[in-house]
Recover the amino acids of this structure.
């Protein structure tokens, strides 16, 4: 379940916090508030004899990264990650996503304030499995994954979770900046835009953090740049494949499941022969081996498809993080943030 990079192991759970009627909302609110009520100030958590020295080192790193995000990147820290919650499980929540089998489109759920999102989170794995089975009964492709981190989009002070301490140092910093981007700017019913913005700014912010912390010759910075370069190569590849698969679905002569599975397998074969040899790291090595379907492919669409407009805007602004942030903030009320981003990059 944990084959994806930390970038994909996060979810925004603001919609689950609201004390609305209905079993799902009440149960989700109960579990989320239970987690928030377990928050311990970081200075006390760092004295916990039940935590290893390496875990405490990562907790201090998280504090350092959040201060950097607020003071140097001008993100809205909102008091996040100044507290800690120790969980007795590998994931904080379990997330289900789905898609029609012959149409590469998200199956959406709608929540207050965040609007339509292409996933639904559960704090109990068995509940997520029940939802996945219900979706399968509707003849949908599904994907269930464990999630190690979440954001309440600035409505609450998010704690650092013990599940996040399994990340490498660089991935932890990236994750914290990613989530802080969400707390700074989140556009309702535009999950794909929000996630790609946070991916782009998380990658960029992690580079800036380690350049500031360890210098331009930092070995960690070199590693981050390798990871980000691999992610760009994979993003370019999967973006093109998603567009070709959309066209194929429109022209497919018959809804033959064997034909469809063979077509999906072709994507993995092209990755293995054309892309994998170009990658410096192993982040995507399981892609050619996993059971691929539309729901899994759309996860890549949400997080990675076509980051070029973000890059062009950053280049136009001479890679000034604060100016970039202020520029994308102007899209908050835009009827089509994707088109608005393109206009910002072009004009």
């Amino acid at each position: 379940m944990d084959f994806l990079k930390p970038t994909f192991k996060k979810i925004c759970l603001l919609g689950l916090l609201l004390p609305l009627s209905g079993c799902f909302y009440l149960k989700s609110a109960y579990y989320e508030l239970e987690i928030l009520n377990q928050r311990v100030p970081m200075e006390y958590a760092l004295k916990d004899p039940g935590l290893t020295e390496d875990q405490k080192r990562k907790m201090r790193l998280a504090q350092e990264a959040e201060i950097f995000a607020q003071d140097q990147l001008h993100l809205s820290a909102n008091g996040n990650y100044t507290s800690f919650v120790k969980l007795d499980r590998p994931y904080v929540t379990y997330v289900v996503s789905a898609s029609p089998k012959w149409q590469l489109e998200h199956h959406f759920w709608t929540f207050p304030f965040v609007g339509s999102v292409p996933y639904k989170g559960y704090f109990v794995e068995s509940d997520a499995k029940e939802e996945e089975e219900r979706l399968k009964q509707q003849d949908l492709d599904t994907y269930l994954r464990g999630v190690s981190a979440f954001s309440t989009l600035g409505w609450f002070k998010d704690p650092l979770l013990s599940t996040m301490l399994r990340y490498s140092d660089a991935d932890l910093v990236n994750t914290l900046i990613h989530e802080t981007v969400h707390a700074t700017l989140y556009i309702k019913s535009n999950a794909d835009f929000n996630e790609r913005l946070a991916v782009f700014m998380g990658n960029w912010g992690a580079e800036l953090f380690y350049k500031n912390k360890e210098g331009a010759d930092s070995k960690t910075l070199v590693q981050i740049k390798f990871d980000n370069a691999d992610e760009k190569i994979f993003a370019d590849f999967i973006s093109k494949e998603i567009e070709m698969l959309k066209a194929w679905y429109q022209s497919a002569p018959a809804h033959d499941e064997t034909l469809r599975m063979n077509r999906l397998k072709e994507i993995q074969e092209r990755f293995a022969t054309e892309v994998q040899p170009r990658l410096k790291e192993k982040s995507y090595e399981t892609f050619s081996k996993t059971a691929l379907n539309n729901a899994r492919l759309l996860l890549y669409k949400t997080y990675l498809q076509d980051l070029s407009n973000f890059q062009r805007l950053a280049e136009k602004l001479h890679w000034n993080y604060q100016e970039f942030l202020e520029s994308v903030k102007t899209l908050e009320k835009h009827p089509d943030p994707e088109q608005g981003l393109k206009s910002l990059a072009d004009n």
User: Anything to note?
Assistant: The longest helix spans residues 219-251. Confidence is low (pLDDT under 50) at residues 6-22. The chain has one domain: 6-306. The CA atoms of residues 156 and 206 lie 24 Å apart.
